[in-house]
Design goal:
The chain contains 17 helices and eight strands. By secondary structure, it is α/β, with parallel strands linked by helices. The protein has a domain of about 180 residues: Rossmann fold, CATH 3.40.50.11890. Helix 3 packs across helix 5, helix 8 crosses helix 14 and helix 9 packs parallel to helix 12. The longest helix is centred in the middle third of the chain and has 23 residues. The structure holds iron/sulfur cluster. Iron/sulfur cluster binds next to helix 7. The site of iron/sulfur cluster (SF4) has 12 residues, from helix 7.
């Protein structure tokens, strides 16, 4: 599979971001905030915090296959092997005194020590437990938003209630940052996030082309700046370049999967420790995973600089992961049509029930209603003790064959 030329630029940008965060942690004049992936990042940017994203760090531990060996250290402290393996591998890394950041730059020897940890429970409770571990460890505040889950319609009342919680963070964050919130800087950060989101959505939408110029596995890697540099103008600049490269591929008819004959959609978490293996397996079968719910989770294009708190609240409430099954089914059926896929791969990630949507009959309902076939692969995001290469291979080979036979 041809490598995207933008990859080198993306790696350099991510390394720059990690080095900046590390430098901020050593600088007595700077403040560091840890933030959950869909927390109120723009508010933190406007207050001048250097921001670290533990979920990104945990994904790096998973992708480097270090996670599985680290988890037992968290289990020894009472964190069940059944709870989020992002959390347990990250805590395990901390206990072992190692960080995935060292692989990017050996001069970084530890995760940046936070002055505050900021969460949003719209995705799960695990982020709060995870951040609370570090809050106790360093004696620093853990504050955030307790957002509802299982959201059907995103009503004005819900938005107002979450917006009020985000507003409630301003005063404690100002005290920690040692500066007042500047409304202009907040508007600017929200505008940059929105512009980045629009570009990231356009990048993802190139997967609608036949053949697709990119795969889900590419987007798992290239989503880094959308997560780590959300609200930072460098991320928008990066996606302009990536988009141009992908549009060039489409114009030339270049496929991410040479000989693409089956198109799939990925639902759920990546299997970080087998990203390359699953990608290569599907490529050999001529199957392109053209889209995913996971990588679409960093699209916040309804952010509005003129209504920063309300639009941050609605962006968090509208996320796929926070919604009811009925809404998720409508979204998946629409995504299957949009990407013209032959079927959906549901990943049942054993330690993330929050982002595994195949456990309550959804695959059957999608087959019976809109007629979207699917397969379930059983694995995990980071804990490879819960993964079987053979099991995943057999499930995917069988499903691709089924899709091929069903193709006109
Ligand atoms: S959504 Fe899943 S993977 Fe993400 S922090 Fe929560 S439990 Fe972990």
């Amino acid at each position: 599979m041809p490598r995207l030329e933008s990859t080198t630029r993306m790696q350099a940008l991510m390394a720059e971001a990690f080095r900046e965060c590390d430098a901020a942690a050593w600088d007595p004049g700077r403040r560091v905030a840890w933030c959950s992936s869909v927390g109120p990042v723009e508010l933190l940017r406007a207050l001048g915090f250097a921001i670290f994203f533990p979920e990104n760090h945990a994904a790096m531990l998973g992708a480097s296959r270090a996670a599985t060996d680290l988890i037992p250290a968290a289990s020894a402290e009472g964190y069940s092997p059944d709870v989020c393996s992002y959390m347990t591998s990250d805590i395990g890394a901390f206990r072992h005194g190692v960080t995935a950041l060292s692989r990017v730059d050996p001069s970084i020897t530890a995760v940046p020590r936070p002055d505050v940890l900021v969460y949003d429970t719209n995705q799960c409770r695990d982020v709060l437990d995870w951040f609370s571990f570090y809050g106790r460890q360093w004696g620093v505040p853990v504050i955030g938003v307790s957002a509802p889950r299982g959201v059907g319609e995103v009503t004005d009342d819900l938005v107002a209630s979450v917006a009020a919680q985000i507003r409630g963070l301003v005063s404690p964050l100002e005290s920690i940052a040692g500066r007042r919130l500047d409304a202009g800087r907040l508007r600017e950060a929200v505008a940059v996030s929105r512009d980045t989101s629009i570009l990231w959505r356009r990048v993802l939408s190139t997967g609608e082309a036949r053949p697709s110029p990119l795969t889900f596995f590419d987007t798992c890697v290239h989503m880094g700046p959308a997560v780590v540099l959300r609200g930072d103008p460098r991320s928008a600049a990066y996606y302009e370049g990536l988009l141009a490269e992908l549009e060039g591929r489409i114009a030339r008819g270049e496929a991410a999967v040479v000989g693409e004959r089956v198109r799939l959609y990925w639902e759920g978490m990546p299997i970080w420790g087998r990203l390359r293996d699953v990608s290569d397996l599907l490529a050999r079968l001529g199957a392109c995973v053209a889209g995913s719910t996971y990588c679409s989770s960093w699209v916040f294009d309804t952010l509005d600089p003129d209504a920063p708190f309300e639009s941050m609240a609605s962006a968090a409430l509208e996320l796929f992961i926070t919604r009811t099954d009925a809404v998720k089914e409508r979204i998946l059926a629409a995504e299957a049509r949009r990407y013209s896929v032959d079927g959906i791969v549901f990943h049942d990630a054993k330690t993330c029930p929050n982002n595994s949507n195949c456990r309550y009959g959804m695959p059957g309902r999608l087959a019976a209603g809109p007629g979207v076939p699917s397969v379930v692969v059983h694995s995990d995001l980071n804990d490879l003790r819960l993964h079987s290469d053979e099991g995943v291979r057999l499930a995917l080979e069988g499903f691709v064959e089924q899709c091929t036979e069903a193709s006109p």
